[in-house]
Amino acid sequence: MSFAVPKGLPGNPNSQSLGRIAIETRVHNLWNHLIESASARTGSLLIWDTGTYTVLPRKKSSRRPPSPQTTDDGSDTDLEAFVQATLEAKPENEKLIDAFKSRYIRLRLNGFKLPKNYTITLRLPFANDVSKSRPARRKSRRKPKSAGAPKSTDSEPEDDDREADPPPEDAQDIDTDSDEDAQTRLNNAYPGSTNTIGSVHQRAWFILLDRLSSGFVQERAAETWVRRGNAKGEGFDPFFILGREVESSVVTGRLAREVERDEGVEGFVGRAGWVGITR
């Protein structure tokens, strides 16, 4: 499964825009993730980070009643603990698919660039759970506004740490090639890969930094999140993903313009909207 994160992964526990939109993109085959290339249509494709992942269980509610005991001798054996151990014995990819289908993924990413214990959650709001891919939009001529018509004040909604509105309509096809095959769009999978997980084209998820699981605690007086002070050195210094002019490949160290130069691509102009958040 693949997601486009137009404003980058959240790396600051005190960010004013902690929540981000994660747009479900076409299922990739392994080859797509192991190459660095460029074209006049897509620009540079480089590997920013690579590594493994761990699917964490969903957080428990404090209002949940205690589970029944499973033994007669008064021991602390808990049915819930047994079920949890059974779930944890499953392979990570199976747990990821189960979490994906449940609309809530709690994921620890173990990469070379990402800090230790970096944890995010991905949640699919019901409002964004479209069952069919959106038809390709056709360009239409805008009707002239009347002299007394008010000007539009619509703008992209701000994300916060509670909920995220769906992205504006103009941002829906942010990763879509202009000449994509209709069957590829319908199946939401690139040729050579199979969509067996029910992935839906351009479905908008909500991505959030899991601050507690990433090693942060909240200072009540200042209402800010700080690194948990212990011998394990939990938490991390804030980081920001600053875009194609700054970010380099974790494999070759190349920048976007260097990848394009090596592939003979000149004069690429990137799409609007792919900007990192630094506040």
Describe the protein's architecture and organization.
With 279 residues, this protein is α+β, with helices and mostly antiparallel strands. It has one domain (1-62, 77-136, 158-267). The protein contains four helices and ten strands. It starts with a strand and ends in a 17-residue tail after the last helix. The model is unreliable at 62-72, 132-140, 145-173 and 175-179 (pLDDT under 50). Pfam families: LigD_N (PF13298).
How would the blueprint of this fold be written?
Elements: E1 2-4, E2 19-25, E3 37-39, E4 43-45, E5 51-55, H1 79-88, H2 92-101, E6 104-111, E7 119-123, H3 182-187, E8 204-209, E9 216-219, E10 224-227, H4 256-262
Provide keyphrases for this structure.
six-stranded antiparallel β-sheet; two-stranded antiparallel ribbon; alpha+beta; 279 residues; DNA ligase D 3'-phosphoesterase domain-containing protein; 17% strand
Short description:
This protein is of the alpha+beta class. It has helices spanning 79-88, 92-101, 182-187, 256-262, and strands at 2-4, 19-25, 37-39, 43-45, 51-55, 104-111, 119-123, 204-209, 216-219, 224-227. The chain has one domain (1-62, 77-136, 158-267).
